[in-house]
Batch of 2 targets.
Target 1
Amino acid sequence: MATLTTPAVSLQPKDYGSNQEVRWCPGCGDYSILAQIKKALAAVGRDPDQMVFISGIGCSSRLPYYMATYGIHGIHGRAPAIASGLRLVRQDLDIWVVTGDGDGLSIGGNHLLHAIRRNLNIKILMFNNRIYGLTKGQVSPTSEMNKKTVSTPYGSVGAQINPCSVAIGCEATFVARTVDMLPKHLEYVLQRAAHHRGVAFVEIYQNCNIFNDGAYKYMTDKEVRDDNLIELEHGKALIFGKNGDKGIRLGSGYRPEVVKLGEGGVSLYDLLIHDEKATSPALGFMLSRLRYPQFPEPIGVFRAIDAPVYDALIDDQVKRLTAEKGPPDMQKLLDGPDPWEVE
């Protein structure tokens, strides 16, 4: 993993925590995420007085209470909308959205898509446990096919949403995935997101030990995880496996396939090279589609590019029009071009 810049201010992780009792179910992956958020913010030196965490509804949405920053516990699915409005009027703030797979991709899907495609300068953390936890275990948009839950006792039907694919499809300028039980990797990804100017979307695989325990065991179990995940690193070949002898290459029809180095003449030069800075989202999208058990699942940064930021573009437009036309007349605006009166 790359070395990141030194912090702007000197604070400790504890300085980012509030005095509120942290209350999630014992063993919940949210505890790990909260700890790494505080570590990451201390590492990059963010000023808590210039930060705000905004959430919707769900287990993940309790997080703003536990941060010694400004916070808004909003309504179901509307955190991106709240963040959008705040960003346009307060460009000095560091704005983070905390959402879950249900909150962000179900009722909040529309708001999420537009916050991403506009490239607002906000960070969006999606805690994905593939279940509705707060409402006691219903199927979520990211639940796998045939998932048996209290709302789908005979198994769920319908395609499983892939959050990173959605974000890349909306042209997100920063997209990454990490796992709650890989703390060093999680902290690194959060630091990368903090440094990015523009929308930064981070999917965090998170265990719900009450309603969906072990959903990501294949990614966290030390005995098998090296064969089931692949860490993306910019400019490096896609290699994985306990012995580092497996890789991903493009096969016929531009389809990714797993190969073993040394077999059939396969060498390092046959493997795909990751390019997170590629202007085209094609490679990142393809990698985001790799799913266990057919493939190792990628973690790390899929895409990180520079692009015009929506809030800065709006600010420039307002300044330009004000210079050309003068300050707006609110009463004239309310009256409109063709006012009429009812007597």
Note: The two ends are 72 Å apart (CA to CA).
Target 2
Amino acid sequence: MTAIADLTAVELAAAIRTRAVSPVEAVEAALARIEDRKDLNAFMTICAERARMEAKSAETALRDGAASGPLHGIPFSVKDLTNTEGVRTTQGSALFADHVPTVDAVAVARMRAAGAILIGKTTTPEFGHKPFTEGPLFGRTLNPVNPAFTCGGSSGGAAVAVAAGMGPIALGTDGGGSIRIPAACCGVFGLKATLGAIPNLQAPDLFGANSYVGPIARTISDVRMMFDVLAGTDFRDPYGQAGLPSARRIRKGELPRIGLLLRCGNILDPEVEAAVVATMRRAEMLGMVVEPVELDLVGLEPHFLTFLRSLLLARLGPLAESHPHKFDPTLLVTIDVGRAYSASNLCEAQFARTVCFGSIQAILTQFDVIASPTLSTPALPVGLDPLGKIRIAGQEAGTIRGAWYPYTYPFNLTGHPALSMPCGFAANGLPIGLQLVGRWHEDRFLLDIAELFG
């Protein structure tokens, strides 16, 4: 019999509804797994007593016929960048080591309103600034497949927790691939939804937003369950004002057209290429049309860095000057480089963002989705300089951002929904991720297509 901690959210929800598993048992199983796998260092804060109290209340509500929603009694975790009422939220930083928000972020509030029970806050690099989940405040979070390789970032703790059964579902955030990168490294599913589909009011610039809150899970069905809970308009979000367009779904017998973006100006690991090509061949065997597309995404890296470094400088520059000893050294470097940018540079980055959006829209007039690797290689070894360069397939490939995940950050800028899903394994056992990108507000259609792959 499958252990309770290894049940998916869909399975667990069904078991709770039929009283085969109680919310108390579900929470205790997740907490026990967290204790058993504390070597992975996936959590910043564990709110065990609060979770136990809420589980007892959920069990009483179930007995009284007052279950609150589709996630009733299901434990979940939240990346420590996202505010949680009454539970410490550190941003992965010593500066906020004792910060306790007074309100939940919108996504957290919606999860709790649907009956989910918060069990803890997962690790993140300081302010989510790099793709490796490590930092001075908490150390390093380990990849559950092989600890010699990174779990990715910046939602590394969330992906590790889900992969290891420390709760079936988690909320991550994604400012340049931060849900999809660790999802690929840990062999789970991660969705960056359409801009505005899941409100993220913590972003300091809501009009130029490129940071998202979204689901991480072990199955596409669980991602769908979470998205249905999380998605919806919010009057305070400039991209979430109007009702979402009528959701396109796969009709019976409909087979999508897939534009395959195998390379985007980067060097690609042969094992990743083989896994993605094999998945596309299976798609063709199912009757889908797969044709190659061309798009230079690597060239967008300097402009993405302009946004990233300028934002971090604006948010943290004064604090970095007054409390440098409390910062991750790589974050200090990132902030400092941002001082060289001008207002013209920022406008040029906006121009490039607009051009990229137009290029992707043009492709999506011909295809239902774009498929690509999530990452150019499987998980990288631990201990690398996140600001340094890497080799891929025996060649000098460039910076980690431009060489390892050029497929992810452009879609933060353009707002298109993007999903990372497992599509095989390297010879050393590390997972390989496939990314699917869809049209704005066709998130559910994107999930339908992912589900076709089985």
Note: The mean pLDDT is 96.
